[in-house]
Specification:
The structure holds two protein chains of two kinds. Chain A is built from seven helices and eight strands; from the N terminus they run βββββααααβββααα. Chain A is an alpha+beta fold. Chain A has two domains: about 1-70, OB fold (Dihydrolipoamide Acetyltransferase, E2P) (Beta Barrel), CATH 2.40.50.140; about 70-245, de novo design (two linked rop proteins) (Up-down Bundle). In chain B, the strands form two sheets. Chain B has a four-stranded parallel sheet with strand order 4-3-5-6. Chain B has a two-stranded antiparallel ribbon with strand order 1-2. In chain B, helix 5 links the parallel strand 3 (about 90) and strand 4 (about 110). In chain B, helix 1 (about 10-20) crosses helix 2 (about 30-40). Chain B starts with 11 loop residues before the first helix and ends in a 5-residue tail after the last helix. Classes of the chains: A alpha+beta, B alpha/beta. The interface of A and B includes residues 68, 74 and 233 of A.
Chain lengths: ~260, ~200
């Protein structure tokens, strides 16, 4: 999930494992082109590893790739969203704390991205599921103040309390962002019917932006720090100079058509 | 970063040297102490030579205004060399230029990006010398751009991104072949490398 160089040719690699959660290890010689470990320890690679106990950090002694996730290497949008998922897990979990549910969610979500399932839906589903698993599940159905069912209308989301306020209780917050009816509906669809239902929804660009801004700001509140991946992805895909007007240039192949499903 | 709580037995000047050495990549607290005491024991001339060498690189080495490689003169000797052709080889770091020059295979010039796109670390295209590359390409008409970024995921993403920006400018964009390392055993190759090696096979 993240890497840093160590010594001449070694690397410290952060893994996410079923038994130990986030887990930093030393990969000897992994920066050399002839390294046998290096390719198996690439970002987002699903691999089976053998370790030896080290003094401070354990050392990788053997590695075997289970799934290399090739699309994440060639498709900038899939790469950007995979980076975001890795960043969320990296920032919201503690080292060496077992969380098999988050592990399986991450494995599944990366595989879906690799199968070119709509990255927007996969990522929002992942975010909502991670929040739920880590105890930050937003309340999507009732007013957090009076407990009444929320009606189909724009409501303010109070990040510090993890939920919406109904029109009667709305005066209790100032400056909380309003979430549109459709954005609330999308989140409830994800919550009730899962990813399968969400990928079939047609989500216009404006709604995509609104939902991404919503989950990003709630994640920022939870982690108490900024997340970089999606900002960088936006700079890469719609930054200045990325769409030079040129006849015959192929359209960017990075946003799959809505409803695009794995074969 | 001060990595180790030191007892008052360490004199402040030594502690300061240990702290400074500890900031170097790959140097931990123990290694920093060992290096510091080595400097302490070394002759005055050796210590002065080390200090001067450090100051020298900071004062005399600048980035080439054309290719952004580290150089003593701006533009650098490679950019000024009239025998080199106009093609540009794009690399991540100055050390990559050194490695490529050792092969003696490249006849063109370089462009150093100073990194690769890495969303997790917050490094986007604006942090790299990419606008400078695009400007250079439109001014110099290089014919071929070789994208020699690393073959890891961040290097690949950077190459994909650059490819999309460069193709509309009417240049040929190439990437070094990837495959099996010289001296490597086939049976130990990972599937990504082996797959690419097969995809890029050539008639003998």
């Amino acid at each position: 999930m993240s890497r840093m160089a160590l010594n001449e040719a070694d690397r410290i690699v952060t893994l996410f494992t079923p038994a130990y959660g986030k887990y930093r290890v030393i990969a000897k010689g992994a920066r050399r082109p002839t390294s046998r470990l290096g390719p198996h320890l690439e970002y987002f690679t699903h691999a089976r590893l053998q370790m030896a106990r080290g003094r401070e950090l354990d050392v990788v002694t053997g590695a075997e790739t289970l799934r290399p996730h090739m699309l994440l290497r060639t498709d900038l949008t899939a790469f950007g969203h995979a980076s975001h998922m890795a960043e969320v897990v990296l920032r919201l979990t503690e080292e060496r704390q077992e969380n098999a549910a988050v592990y399986h969610l991450l494995v599944k979500s990366l595989a879906l991205l690799d199968e070119a399932v709509d990255p927007f839906a996969v990522t929002r589903h992942f975010e909502l599921a991670v929040m739920t698993l880590l105890g930050y599940r937003p309340e999507l159905y009732r007013c957090i103040e009076c407990g009444r069912d929320l009606e189909a209308e724009p409501n303010p989301f109070v990040a510090s309390r993890g939920g919406f306020l109904c029109p009667v209780c709305r005066h209790r917050t100032t400056g909380s962002p309003m979430l549109s009816i459709n954005a609330q509906k999308y989140l409830r669809t994800l919550d009730r019917h899962g990813l399968g239902a969400a990928v079939r929804l047609r989500v216009p660009d404006g709604l995509r932006d609104e939902l991404e801004a919503f989950t990003s700001s709630y994640l920022r509140h939870i982690a108490e720090r900024d997340f970089h991946s999606l900002r960088v992805w936006h700079a890469v895909t719609d930054g200045p100079g990325t769409s030079p007007p040129s006849a015959g240039a192929s359209p960017p192949a990075d946003r799959p058509a809505p409803g695009h499903a794995p074969g | 970063m001060s990595l180790q709580r030191r007892s008052s037995a360490t004199a402040p000047p030594v502690a300061r040297l240990i702290d400074e050495l500890g900031k170097l990549p790959g140097i931990g607290a123990k290694t920093a102490s060992r290096l510091a005491y080595h400097v302490l024991r070394a002759s005055r001339e050796d210590a002065v030579a080390l200090a001067e060498a450090i100051l020298d690189v900071k004062e005399r080495i600048v980035l080439c205004g054309v290719c952004f490689n580290t150089t003593e003169e701006d533009p650098c000797s490679i950019c000024r060399d009239p025998t080199r052709d106009a093609s540009i080889c794009v690399v991540q770091e100055p050390l990559d230029v050194v490695a490529l020059e050792r092969t003696g295979q490249l006849k063109g010039k370089y462009h150093v990006l100073h990194g690769a796109i890495s969303p997790v670390e917050g490094i986007g295209p604006d942090r790299l010398k990419i606008q400078e590359l695009l400007r250079r390409v439109s001014q110099e008409d290089p014919g071929e751009i070789i994208l020699a970024t690393n073959l890891d995921i961040t290097g690949e993403a950077t190459a994909t991104y650059l490819h999309r920006l460069l193709v509309p400018l009417g240049v040929t964009v190439t990437r070094p072949a990837s495959g099996l390392p010289v001296g490597g055993d086939l049976e130990y190759a990972d599937e990504v490398t082996l797959g690419r090696a097969l995809a890029g096979r050539r008639p003998l």
